[in-house]
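REQUEST
  id: r-88c1
  op: predict_structure
  target: Vitelline m7 coat lysin
  payload:
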Amino acid sequence: CKSGWRYAFNFCYYISAFADIQSHSGAQAACKTQGGELFWPQFVYESFFLKKTLNKVKISTHFFWTNGEKHGGKWDWGTGHPAFSNPRWSPGQPDGSGTCLAVYSHTGFLDDQPCETQYNYVCKTKA
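RESPONSE
  id: r-88c1
  status: 200
  body:
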């Protein structure tokens, strides 16, 4: 993996720096610039890895953008990725507050958020 990225499960993961907050589309563009894409969990254990990793990172934000979006009333992980299966939602979520998905760092659960909100983000690419 490139410098600043973390290796696990044959993928490389990048967690944006404290001051690097973006809207959902800004986070997508930032990941693409670095040769990756916003995080999407291919395996259940990736979600647990992400939770553990985010809890080690000393960033005060509680949410990090993922690749999840709502299209046509359904949530998905973006073009070319498997559809949602058993998503790990935060209690009371989704509540209709947004059409983009963030992961809550303390639990690893998903939360729908307005896409314009500025959060840190997690990128993913094949190792």
